[in-house]
Structures are given as structure tokens and as C-alpha cells.
């Protein structure tokens, strides 16, 4: 299995790179994306470095995946109107650049029906 230990998100979890924590549970943290693609663009990541992408996470710990979705919904309620787009890029050819599973929460003025 690939490990996500040495990614930039692993360093964020370890506190080596400071971020503005917008949500935190025992197992999950959320912070703004450094290059926002929507009025609200927040990343939700598990603290564990065990899972490189959502396929691995869904197979290994579906409860943790469900917790990430719960946090995403809460953030959409707090920062937008409660509606949100949840994106997981899986693999380099799909645009994934950080191999520590993360959900992109996009919200606020998403009127284009691109997907
Ligand atoms: P992906 O392309 O799906 O792997 O998404 C990685 C995301 O992480 C990109 O949207 C980047 O803008 C974002 N990102 C990279 N470094 C940081 C950072 N230090 N703080 C917040 N977001 C970051």
C-alpha cells in the first residue's frame, strides 16, 4: 500500500506547516485551500497518513470517509448556504497532486453545472 506520510498534508497534520483550522475532530481537520477555485474552497483531510486516496480510504475505513463528509456538510452550512460540491481527485492523471486523501469542499455561487 502507498503511504501518505511524507506529503505536505502530513506536515500540516504534524503541525509543521501552520494552517487556519476551520474544523477539527479527533480524526479530521479542515483548512482553506491555498489556491481557491470557488468562493468557498476548503480541504477536509483525515489526520491519519495511512490513505493516499479515497479508494483506499473507502476500503480501509468507511466510517472515517463518512466523518469527512459530515465535516464537509457542516462547513458548507457555516461558510455557504449548505449546498456543496465534494471532489476527490484520484491519481495523477485525474489531477491529484497530494497523495494524502483529501476532499475538496466547494461552495458559494456554484451556478455552473459542469459535472
Ligand atoms: P489535489 O490536486 O486534488 O491533490 O489537491 C491538492 C490541493 O492542495 C490543491 O488544491 C492545492 O491548492 C492545495 N494545497 C497545496 N498546498 C497547500 C497548503 N499548504 N495549504 C492549503 N492548501 C494547499
Written overview of the protein:
This protein has 115 residues and is an alpha+beta fold. It has a domain at 8-39 and 61-107: HIT family, subunit A (2-Layer Sandwich), CATH 3.30.428.10. Helices cover 27% and strands 19% of the residues. It has 3 helices and 5 strands; from the N terminus they run αβββααββ. The chain has helices at residues 8-13, 54-60, 62-79; strands spanning 23-24, 28-32, 40-46, 85-87, 103-107. It has a 5-stranded antiparallel β-sheet with strand order 1-2-3-5-4, with helices on one face. Helix 2 (54-60) crosses helix 3. The chain starts with 7 loop residues before the first helix and ends in an 8-residue tail after the last strand. Bound molecules: adenosine monophosphate. The site of adenosine monophosphate has 13 residues, from loops.
Task: Describe the SSE topology.
Layout (H helix, E strand, L loop, with lengths): L7 H6 L9 E2 L3 E5 L7 E7 L7 H7 L1 H18 L5 E3 L15 E5 L8
Bound molecules: adenosine monophosphate.
Adenosine monophosphate binds next to loops.
Number of helices: 3
* Mean model confidence by pLDDT: 94
Q: Decide which structural class fits the backbone.
A: alpha+beta
The CATH architecture classification of the domain at 8-39 and 61-107 is 2-Layer Sandwich
Morphology call: globular
Tell me the helix content: 25-40%
What is the third-level CATH name, the topology of the domain at 8-39 and 61-107?
HIT family, subunit A
Biggest sheet: strands, sense, closure? 5 strands, antiparallel
Quaternary state of this entry equals single chain
- Strand portion, in percent? 15-25%
CATH class of the domain at 8-39 and 61-107: Alpha Beta
> Radius of gyration over alpha carbons?
13 Å
**SSE order, one letter for each helix or strand:** HEEEHHEE
Task: Specify the CATH homologous superfamily of the domain at 8-39 and 61-107.
Answer: HIT-like
Number of strands: 5
Low-confidence stretches: none
Order of strands across the main sheet: 1-2-3-5-4
Gap from first CA to last CA? 30 Å
